[in-house]
Design a protein that fits this description.
Layout: E1 4-12, H1 19-30, E2 36-40, H2 51-57, E3 59-65, H3 68-77, E4 81-86, E5 117-118, H4 121-149, H5 154-177, E6 179-181, H6 186-199, E7 204-208, E8 213-216, H7 217-238, H8 242-247, E9 254-263, E10 266-273, H9 280-289, H10 302-306, H11 321-338, E11 342-347, E12 353-360, E13 364-373, E14 376-381, E15 385-390, E16 396-403, E17 406-414, E18 420-423, E19 440-446, E20 449-455, E21 457-467, H12 475-481, E22 483-488, E23 494-498, H13 500-507
Parallel strand pairs: 7-9, 14-23, 18-20
Antiparallel strand pairs: 1-3, 1-4, 2-3, 2-5, 6-8, 8-13, 9-10, 10-12, 11-12, 13-14, 13-21, 15-19, 16-17, 17-18, 19-20, 21-22, 22-23
Helix pairs in contact: 4-5, 6-7, 7-11
Length: about 525
């Protein structure tokens, strides 16, 4: 088919502050299908000052390809695109008037009369590296075919082995070139929270915990958009006015806490606020009317009912504010489903509301602490650790707890600040990572509860990439340890990575259900 050039006008669904991010994602979505692609305004990815233009006029995309139908379908298929129409007269495109103090100008676009700019050069470099990697993989396939025809050729066998190692190193380098720290998006999240708190007349403080997680920039872009939708929804629908908060005995300023952590093949972002919890009764009754319940409503927990909130199309936009608030959760669920993720909503024991967003990641890098208990070596994600303390046995406290009709010992550790932390692996228990000669107490943040591990040694910190556990490991023992995968350390040795949350869940197995 002949290579054709088109200009289209893309109108985005109203989104109150995310138009520039969505416009950038449209361009990234169609770039692999195009020979050339450019957009107007040219600074949509980096300049939030383009938002007003995008709301009023839309995004204009110029592309050249021999398959324009596929490109148009890709644009229309984006869940945040409202409409897409062809532009016959380029002169009819409204100019973008950048603010006077803008350091970004329209200079450098394709000719003085053209408002368009080339697609992100970094994305083009990513494509070049991906093409190079594909060529090396093709060469390796040919070498392996020759080796199968000459199985006794030692020289060829050594060459194929060396090439496989080089290919693996190249694959890792390409993946790492796309890695960016989660903390990069923190400033834009703070700016959004400040803007919306002023817009809706509420006082909000956004607390973004240091992520210590790095991941693929395309995943990070999707996460940023969805997280912003959640923050907006929390501020608009969940945070009370200062007067109502004071009357309810709450601080005048609400707090939204955001933390991110690795969970095996997922990255989990937990967003918690101390505003109005969701009404499990209203959501449960709606689920009953939709025919989604398999047992009586009063037998469901609030957390089980909360799982319906992020179900795509669970609630459609209605005329009432309550229906609109619930429908925004359904939209967030649709966005998650679009990127292969899922989510959970729950009211916590502290009276707060938590939205957990699970994003699948092909490759992630995180900081871990390298630990030892007895003969067991493992790593613990740094974002789950509050701090280390020297272990003192006289700070142990024991209590009796009823479990399955029998009394069981529970041990607590009194930290230096007089807080009590329940021990997850005291040596008198049955944990697969019990300490033999405890020297350190590691204080943890596990779903907002005070938990602690005791370990024999701390070998330091290291940044690692985490992969799923191979089948050859004992998956029963790995599951009991709360493993989320294994990492290759700088010295080449493997190390199991343990999630304190999974370890706690494994220890509590035996209840009537699980998340």
């Amino acid at each position: 088919m002949e290579r054709q050039e088109r200009i289209v006008q893309v109108m985005l669904k109203p989104n109150c502050g995310l138009e520039n991010t969505r416009a950038s994602l449209v361009v990234r979505r169609i770039a692999p299908l195009c020979d050339t692609v450019s957009c107007h305004p040219r600074t949509v990815k980096s300049d939030r000052r383009t938002i007003d233009y995008l709301r009023d006029h839309g995004l204009f995309v110029r592309f050249a390809t021999n398959k324009p139908e596929q490109v148009l379908l890709a644009i229309k298929g984006a869940f945040f695109v409202d409409s897409c129409t062809l532009v016959d007269d380029p002169a009819s495109i409204p100019p973008f008037a950048a603010p006077a103090d803008s350091t970004e100008t329209e200079a450098g676009s394709l000719g003085a009369s053209s408002p368009f700019a080339d697609h992100d050069e970094r994305g083009e470099r990513d494509d070049e590296l991906a093409d190079l990697l594909a060529r090396f993989e093709g060469i390796h396939h040919v070498l392996r075919s020759h080796l199968q025809s000459n199985p006794h050729d030692r020289v060829l066998n050594d060459a194929v082995f060396s090439h496989a190692q080089a290919l693996d190193a190249l694959r890792t380098a390409v993946e790492r070139s796309r890695i960016e720290p989660f903390d990069r998006i923190a400033p834009s999240l703070h700016a959004l929270a400040d803007d919306y708190s002023k817009r809706f007349g509420v006082a909000v403080r956004l607390d973004v915990a240091e992520g210590r997680v790095a991941l693929d920039r395309s995943v990070l872009a999707s996460m940023e958009e969805i997280i912003k939708c959640v923050i907006r929804s929390c501020i608009r629908d969940g945070i009370e006015s200062p007067d109502k908060r004071l009357a309810a005995g709450k601080p005048e300023c609400a707090t939204i806490r955001l933390r991110v952590e690795n969970d095996g093949s997922d990255v989990v972002c937990r967003i918690e606020h101390d505003g109005t919890p969701f009404s499990a009764k209203d959501v449960g009754e709606l689920a009953f009317r939709r025919g989604l319940l398999t047992r009586p409503l009063d037998t469901y927990t609030d957390e089980e009912i909360g799982s319906f909130l992020l179900m795509p199309r669970f609630v459609r936009t209605g005329t009432g504010s309550k229906s609109d608030a619930l429908s925004r959760f359904s939209e967030i669920g649709s966005m998650l489903r679009h990127v292969g993720g899922h989510g959970k909503v729950r009211n916590t024991e502290r009276g707060t509301m938590e939205i957990a967003l699970y994003f699948p990641v092909p490759f992630t890098v995180l900081e871990v602490a390298l630990l030892r208990t007895g003969e067991t070596l493992f790593a613990l994600p740094a974002q789950q650790i509050k701090r280390f303390e020297a272990f003192l046995e006289d700070r142990l406290e024991a209590s009796k707890a009823q479990g399955d009709g029998a009394c069981a010992d529970r041990f607590f550790y009194a930290s230096e600040d007089d807080g009590l932390y329940e021990l997850l692996n005291w040596r008198e228990g049955s944990s697969p990572i019990d300490a033999a000669d405890p020297r350190f107490a590691i204080l943890l943040d596990v779903l907002g509860a005070k938990r602690a591990l005791v370990v024999d040694a701390v070998d330091g910190y290291e940044r690692v990439s985490v992969n799923q556990l191979p089948q050859l490991l004992d998956r029963g023992a790995a599951r009991a340890m709360g493993c989320i995968g294994y990492a290759m350390l700088e010295d080449g040795s493997p190390r199991a990575v343990v999630s304190a949350r999974r370890f706690l869940s494994a220890s509590n197995e035996g209840g009537r259900g699980h998340a």
